[in-house]
Design a protein that fits this description.
By secondary structure, the chain is of the alpha+beta class. Helix content is 40%, strand content 16%. The protein has 13 helices and 9 strands. It has a 5-stranded antiparallel beta sheet with strand order 3-4-5-9-8, with helices on both faces. A two-stranded antiparallel ribbon has the order 1-2. The longest helix has 14 residues. About 15% of the residues have low confidence.
């Protein structure tokens, strides 16, 4: 929802001869704090172009025009666009279309349910393919268009210096692809806690040597890796890490000694899909999956 985000959305719509009115995503409060304050100070309503999903909605409108599909129902499951999108997701994630579950996302588009390993496969097949190299390069060159300033996915891309691609999803999920190692790491926090998601994904990348502690501390990731609990005056009164350990996340907050059931330190010796950890607070609080490309 930043000014830059809005500019790009309007440019796309202008190029294809459409307007903001053609977007079927609802008006939404921008995630960007500066833009939120701007709207409040100027008594302005949220717009469709503030919606963080307006980028893909604009792309879908462009594809509909190219294919001759009805643009007034592009978010409908019965629109041929939905069939194309779902087929592509199934191909990338290596999922049988007959076994998928389709629902509706908050932005009104159809959404496909996958397992975490399937999601990792999808990211690997997308970002390791020469076919989609232009997309990969675009994200690496414009990390803040993928998420935004102080957003965990954009800051990971920025700190990764051309080697890491990341994207968050709703309800506490995030995927990171290591282009050099051809691996994908996925974290899902069952109760959707964003703070826990940031801490777990950053600690996991440190454990895997995907990032150094210097890269974290010398970038905006430092603020997303803050474990101290402070009062409004800045006094430290607790530590998030201890709560995480109590929740069963201690694997990520302790020195890395290999993964459960996997001897040694090399996580790249996995045969196919391996579950790195599953925390247990209540039931299945944390899920972390690491998938290596090219292994059966």
């Amino acid at each position: 929802g930043t000014k830059e985000h809005q500019k790009h959305i309007l440019n796309i719509l202008n190029k294809i001869g459409l307007t903001e009115d053609n977007l079927l995503c609802p008006p939404d409060t921008p995630l960007d704090k500066n833009e939120q304050e701007f709207l409040i100070k100027n008594s302005l309503p949220a717009r469709k172009i503030h919606n963080n999903c307006s980028g893909k909605h604009s792309a879908m409108l462009a594809l509909c025009l190219d294919k001759g599909f009805d643009i007034s129902t592009y978010n409908n499951i019965n629109n041929p666009l939905s069939k194309l999108v779902i087929e592509q997701i199934c191909n990338l994630c290596e999922v049988n279309p007959e076994n998928i579950i389709v629902s509706k996302d908050g932005c009104t588009l159809p959404t496909v349910a996958t397992t975490l390993p399937e999601l990792c496969h999808g990211f690997l097949n997308l970002f390791l393919s020469e076919k989609y190299q232009k997309l990969t390069n675009s994200i690496l060159l414009n990390p803040y268009l993928a998420g935004g300033r102080e957003r965990i996915d954009s800051e990971i891309i920025n700190a990764g210096q051309g080697n890491l691609i990341s994207k968050v999803g709703a309800e506490g999920i995030i995927v990171v692809v290591n282009l050099k190692h051809e691996e994908a790491l996925c974290v899902k926090i069952a109760d959707s806690n964003y703070l826990a998601r940031s801490l777990v994904i950053i600690k996991s990348m440190l454990n895997l040597d995907w990032l150094t502690i210097e890269q974290v501390l010398n970038s905006p990731l430092k603020d997303l890796y803050e474990t101290n609990i402070k009062t409004e005056t800045g006094e430290i009164v607790g530590e998030v890490g201890r709560k995480l350990i109590a929740f069963g996340f201690n694997l990520f907050l302790a020195p890395y000694d290999g993964l459960p059931g996997v001897p040694g330190r090399s996580v790249r010796a996995f045969d196919g899909i391996s579950v790195a950890s599953r925390g247990h607070f209540g039931e299945d609080s944390v899920h972390v999956v690491l998938v290596t490309a090219g292994l059966d």
